[in-house]
TrEMBL record, chain A:
Residues covered by the FecR protein domain: 104-194
Name of the protein in its database record: Iron dicitrate transport regulator FecR
Organism: Sphingopyxis witflariensis
GO molecular function, one term: sigma factor antagonist activity
Pfam families: FecR
Length: 314, 196
């Protein structure tokens, strides 16, 4: 909570007290309207303060006494509530650092955060492997496969360079991710600026700033790659164990889940493959996703013995 | 809506509805945000924005399940914020429909039990004169002008002390929400155990 919020909170509290005045009238009302006009968030703050105050009235507390009921949890709620602890344990329990280890790998479905020796952080996405090599003058990370997001500690004397095949990405103090693709690397910059190039075009680096993404092909054609505004699809929510879908074709969305899970989602019906879906899901919850698709599109969902989840009729 | 109702009355009615039907569920939404790994500062922000929405919609009487409604606002704000675009999330609707009936569930009981207790100790901790004035309003039910007459002070003095009371309650609210959403996380565990 910053000081601006605290101020707003206090002013809202003052308005609540003032509204109890016996002579509250049009002039006060005008002053309040003025305050609200100047503080767009004042409406919410005023409502919260007044409601919190009213909730202390004895009659409000009495009205709120619980009716005698048995707790009811719907299946969906269980999905919502139950998973979080498991997620916390499985994903964030793995933070470790060992000075003698210079290679890190993740299994399918695993996301790992690693503190690097220089104070930088790497979040390693599913099914990825990196090798870290720091010395006095250099900080090099080789991305053999998969995707990693780096929060780079500022150190002008030691440039931070990620190698993904022939692609190189350099940062000074910045945050960005690199994903190794079959024919190049996807780069998303969340803070600062990075420069990217390939072995063959080392003297023609392309720069990308925060909020942009860049695809750097292994063998750049005549067209020079350019950074474009990061799309919603280039979300980095995997760092917190989530898949974010924004108007994503179903086939794409399924492929995204398949990155993280051994239980694969298979779409049987090609007519639904281009249907667009939205939502935030847990990376390890393909069933939850399939259920949502079932609810939205009304297509059958089947789970086969070998752990495949099929969507749609054959 | 009663055309004769003053803005003051409308505001009070809305706030009472929020106090009774929405605020008890705030912790649920916060617990969800916590599970979604939203940082607490952003969570505060989203909650504040959601209350803004509740303050500005015309009518609330048609809302059957205010807790679920509140959650849906927060969730949509989060989705929208994350992608900085405005598309309504279909998936969210399925999820919202399945939120437990707002007035049931073990966490609600805990929320209520904590309420009376907390208010009492909160008032007890206020400075002497402030405590007396807040008690006169909250427990004995006097209006601010009546309190002023009974204590032989100006109405502004009463107002100032009430302000300190509101401020304390408001500040405490955040802390309470944090404690509750922490507890709800434990409920989450519990539910997971049962569902296996």
């Amino acid at each position: 909570m910053n000081s601006k919020d605290t101020l707003l909170q206090d002013e809202a509290s003052r308005w609540v007290a003032r509204m109890g005045r016996s002579d509250w009238g049009d002039a006060h009302e005008a002053d309040l309207a003025n305050w609200l006009a100047q503080n767009p968030r004042g409406q919410g703050e005023l409502l919260m303060a007044q409601a919190a105050w009213i909730s202390c009235d004895p009659e409000t507390i009495a009205l709120g006494q619980p009716p005698v009921t048995t707790p009811s949890w719907s299946r969906r709620r269980i999905m919502l509530a139950g998973s979080a602890a498991a997620m916390a344990a499985s994903i964030f329990g793995l933070v470790f650092y060992n000075a003698s280890v210079s290679g890190y790998a993740t299994e399918v479905g695993e996301v790992r955060r690693v503190a690097l020796a220089d104070g930088s952080t790497a979040a390693i996405n599913t099914d990825s492997r990196i090798a870290v090599n720091f010395d006095k003058g250099h900080r090099n990370v080789r991305l053999d496969r998969g995707e990693v997001w780096f929060q780079v500690k500022h150190d002008r004397a030691r440039p931070f360079v990620v190698e993904a095949g022939p692609v190189r990405v350099r940062a000074v103090g910045t945050a960005f991710s690199v994903r190794r693709r079959g024919n190049g690397a996807d780069i998303i910059v969340t803070e600062g600026v990075v420069a990217a190039w390939t072995d063959a075009n080392a003297n023609e680096p392309v720069s990308a700033r925060a909020g942009t993404q860049l695809f750097m092909p292994d063998t750049p054609g005549r067209q020079r790659p350019v950074a474009i505004e990061a799309s919603a699809a280039s979300s980095l929510s995997w760092r917190s164990g989530q898949i974010e879908l924004v108007a994503r074709p179903l086939a794409d969305a399924a492929a995204e889940f398949n990155r993280y899970n051994r239980r694969k989602i298979v779409i049987h019906d090609p007519t639904i493959a281009n249907e667009e879906v939205d939502g935030i899901f847990r990376t390890d919850d393909p069933e939850g996703f399939a259920t949502a698709v079932h609810d939205i599109l009304g297509v059958p969902v089947r789970t086969s013995g070998d752990g495949e989840i099929t969507l749609g009729r054959k | 809506m009663d055309p004769q109702e003053s803005l003051l009355e409308i505001r009070r009615r809305r706030a009472t509805w929020v106090a009774l039907r929405v605020m008890p569920h705030e912790a649920q939404s916060r617990a969800w945000l916590r599970r979604a790994r939203v940082q607490s500062e952003e969570a505060d922000d989203l909650v504040q924005e959601a209350y803004c929405r509740l303050a500005t919609i015309d009518e609330v009487d048609h809302i059957d399940r205010p807790g679920a409604y509140f959650f849906s606002i927060i969730r949509n704000l989060l989705v929208r914020r994350r992608r900085e675009a405005s598309v309504v999330s279909l998936e969210s609707i399925a999820e919202i429909e399945a939120i437990p009936d707002p007035d049931t569930g073990p966490e609600m009981e805990v929320a209520r039990r904590m309420d009376a207790e907390r208010v009492r100790s909160l008032i007890a901790e206020l400075p002497e004169r402030c405590r007396r004035i807040v008690e006169m309003q909250k427990i004995e039910g006097y209006s601010q002008i009546e309190i002023a007459r009974l204590l032989g002070v100006t109405e502004s003095v009463v107002e100032n002390n009430i302000y300190r009371g509101v401020q304390a309650v408001r500040k405490n609210w955040l802390k309470k929400q944090d404690d509750l959403s922490e507890r709800l996380k434990l409920f989450g565990n519990d539910v997971e155990g049962r569902s296996r």
